[in-house]
Amino acid sequence: MKKFGVRSVIAVPYLWLLVFFLVPFLIVFKISFSEMQYAIPPYTDLVTWADEVLTINLNLGTYAYLINDDLYIRAYMSSVRIAFFATVCALLIGYPIAYAIARADTATRNALLMLVMLPSWTSFLIRIYAWVGILKNNGLINNGLMGIGIIDEPIAMLNTEFAVYLGIVYAYLPFMVLPIYTNLVKLDNSLLEASADLGCAPWKTFLTVTLPLSKAGIVAGCMLVFIPSVGEFVIPEMLGGAETLMIGKVLWQEFFNNRDWPVASAVAIVMLLLLLVPITFFHRYKARELES
Amino acid sequence: MQTGKLSNWSKWFLSLGFFFLYAPIIILVIFSFNKSELVTVWAGFSFKWYGELFRDPQMLGAAWISLKIAVLAASAAVVLGTMASMVMVRMGAFKGKTAFTSMITAPLVMPEVITGLSLLLLFVAMGQTLGWPGQRGMLTIWIAHVTFCTAFVAVVISSRLQELDESIEEAAQDLGAPPWKVFFLVTLPIIAPALVSGWLLAFTLSLDDLVIASFVSGPGATTLPMQVFSSARLGISPQINALATIIIGLASLAVLIAWWFARREGMRSVTISEN
Lengths: 292, 275
Prior knowledge:
Chain A has 292 residues and is mostly helical. Chain A has a domain at 69-259: MetI-like fold. Helix content of chain A is 75%, strand content 3%. Chain A is built from 13 helices and two strands; from the N terminus they run αββαααααααααααα. In chain A, strands 1-2 form a two-stranded antiparallel ribbon. In chain A, helix 3 runs antiparallel to helix 10 and helix 4 (106-121) packs antiparallel against helix 7. Chain B has one domain (56-269): MetI-like (MetI-like fold, Orthogonal Bundle), CATH 1.10.3720. Helices cover 78% and strands 0% of the residues of chain B. At the A-B interface, helix 1, helix 3, helix 4, helix 5 and helix 7 of A face helix 1, helix 3, helix 4, helix 5 and helix 6 of B.
């Protein structure tokens, strides 16, 4: 009886995640090897059985197509580049914020932490949309600057790569601050005192003691920003221009506009392979935290 | 870490950081009360756009669908997430545990386009072979939301379970309570605040999702973010500002409730440790 109870507690969430999280990836993998056709569903079967002949159609053409058409390679490269530099910016802004919150007294700390997390509880879409009104040619910044007379004609900010960077940093900043804060707040104060007592300058204590000890938080924060940013769709769609290529947007267009499911699947598989290393990094950090 | 008075540097960083985080939101809220159609020129105070929002049947219908999905998805995610946390924190090692934890951590960072596409292809394949689900719509969106919300809920609840003193549960067990009774009478009441925060988190995540819902939805099930996205694509409109203000108000309320629960919890543990 007890064994049965324990087993079912494990089995229910396990089966749910297996069926609705893991199996779907195998299906994406399978469909990336099929061919597009105008039917329902819009892809060919890999295995067919007709007249006692078993045919296996493994179409590698989709992957060859991804390599030969430089649109995809450029989109992957620019996604990784944009996500990387946006992550660096978020770290440079987020670390001092996390540090300042961790140094505050307990009551202030909780209030500040809540204020950092609050925006991420309101709609992501709406926070990105807010920037459209601020950045566009007749938007708040341009109107303001032209009103004072600093500029004569609007600076193009919306539909540029700059806007995409801004959007990613803005939307993902709380996810950078939170893990770094969690890490810094646990830091043993006596280590910092020891370093100061031994005559170490504050900046040197920071570089040689605080920073290395907060490495786990930095890695987790960077992964939480970098990985979703690579596949981001809403931000490049709403803030980026035609020349800002990002792979999440390409996948969306292949699926919804071109209705080419095999190409969309292959794009997803390659993106997943690119992200395998960062996802493993993140998993290692999180698993230690979850199971300890 | 040493705590105390914030240095001037810290104050500067915090002020700048909070300005960056809040300025766009505040501007959005201010312009929702603007009389003018132009979202960036102030022309006087008005509730006009709120009235227009509440007379828009498409927006209202979409909001209703989204709310239903969010309540149902958050509830199911709390049940599954609690089970998953018990498995990770309390059950020790078992075969396949690594796979289990990866399936909890991976959805936290998985790009939404990949999750959305993969779930859609699953539903299509299931429809072909099993005949279920016959049509995509609210049910498929619900399944998708439960799946990714479970991961977030599990993280919230496991961190609470880890702080929990296991000796209380052991005491109940030693006194002869069967495991299910220990869970419902001892563990569950203690982790209840984490269940509330987990539910609220799942609720807002579900209410907010555009990408995954767009993939797995079918005709007749347009969620609020899908509706907002299609009208925001046409250009910015004050009506969306009005909707945004309502959502921001509700989300702030939810966060305040969650924060209040967490604070009460924190105060209780402080009093316990002081005794």
